[in-house]
């Protein structure tokens, strides 16, 4: 008899949730994690620390820009960067220790070390001192996540030239920050430093920021960020970063190429945020016969089965959006399947949120995707400037856009830019999960005064007229 029903390698949101769900369903579970703490990228160096800094810097900006209008006189806010970092650290500690507690509570054996798949049913754990042990198990889940995508020719030292990990612990706020890539990481962390006084310039390869988002959202959101003082060089790429003492010289060329049109930007810190890649280093997958796809992701079928019986994979290391909640839901679905239940993830309804100010949130199809698929749709839009609560809060940047099928009225996509968008998007997600229509949303009574009323009014705009514009 093997020691375990399930061994999970990696305790990020995919792995730890899968382990807990499997234990709740009666399985004997072990996890293997090489990092000193559990929670993976998300809790240690991703979602959680970035949100701690985003919230704190947002409060700083609120105090600087809006307090006087609200009639609050506290003087010009002063930044205590060390304390802001301490708040971030404490938030991370609280969250990662929570996972250790949940492992104990669910009687999950947590092994510290690097996991290697020796074949179906066998996982080697290599401890920090080099000693090894082997765990025997019925099933193995690979949940090893992702790592920073390097920029060829630019070496990350995590001090001056940083990835998101270094950007979460700079020793001071830089005067000039150049961000390579205006995707989710770049815009979130760029916003943190812009609010705290840095001059921030984004160099983005594509002709729009937040590439996969609805075009309307990208365009208007970029305008809002410009208004906040951030600079954008679109259709451009960084080809070199040269250290000149304490200063960095960043060479920028048109995305299409052309050294002749190259220019240089001076920076104190450069943040490289051009995407992440699946992490499978040292796992022994090739030797074990586990196939990868052309992008280095573990190949799985729709039951998360790899090419080897009894070995499964979930989260950032497989195809799909690299999001914590996608990894978590896959963890639950897989544990349910292993327990003989019907686990399922609806990939059509996975919300995406960018935690800037205003926030950007989206679920379902964009207008561009609907057009490309030849689907006839109706669009309803409502601006935050016409929402009473947003006015009272001085948060009138943004809008809600609802896209519904032209014939059936079924909601196909909802896109929100505005204060609290990341919370509001879930009413759209629930509606879409149940196949709801735009009229269902537009006729659902929404409490007044709430910013969510903008969602109702945008839905109304797809089949009737909104009341407040
Ligand atoms: P990971 O969280 O990467 O966890 C994998 C774990 O496996 C790691 O702990 C690693 O140490 C361990 N591991 C790897 N190899 C081995 C091995 N051989 N043996 C033992 N252990 C191993 N997503 C959101 O949804 N919302 C956000 O707000 C958000 N913010 C982010 C901010 C930043 C700065 C970054 C970088 C990412 C952010 N993400 C966010 C993405 C999110 O972090 C990932 O989608 C999520 O962590 C993926 O979970 P995972 O379990 O697949 O992998
Ligand atoms: P991303 O894919 O969101 O953005 C990368 C950007 O860099 C793209 O716009 C791309 O066009 C650009 N780019 C690529 N190569 C370039 C080059 N050579 N020069 C200039 N620009 C270039 O990736 P990002 O921001 O690194 O985030 C990685 C992952 O982490 C994402 O998949 C995201 O889902 C996840 N994440 C999610 C968050 C959230 O949900 N709020 C927050 C942070 C990260």
Automatic annotation (TrEMBL):
GO biological process: 2-oxoglutarate metabolic process
One GO MF term attached to the UniProt entry: flavin adenine dinucleotide binding
Listed GO CC annotations: cytoplasm
Matching Pfam families: Pyr_redox_2, Pyr_redox_dim
Organism: Stappia sediminis
Binding site for FAD: 51, 115, 144-146, 316, 322-325
Cofactor note: Binds 1 FAD per subunit.
Species lineage: Bacteria, Pseudomonadati, Pseudomonadota, Alphaproteobacteria, Hyphomicrobiales
Pyridine nucleotide-disulphide oxidoreductase dimerisation domain ranges (all copies): 350-459
Name used for this protein in its record: Dihydrolipoyl dehydrogenase
Keyword annotations from UniProtKB, A to Z: Disulfide bond, FAD, Flavoprotein, NAD, Nucleotide-binding, Oxidoreductase, Redox-active center
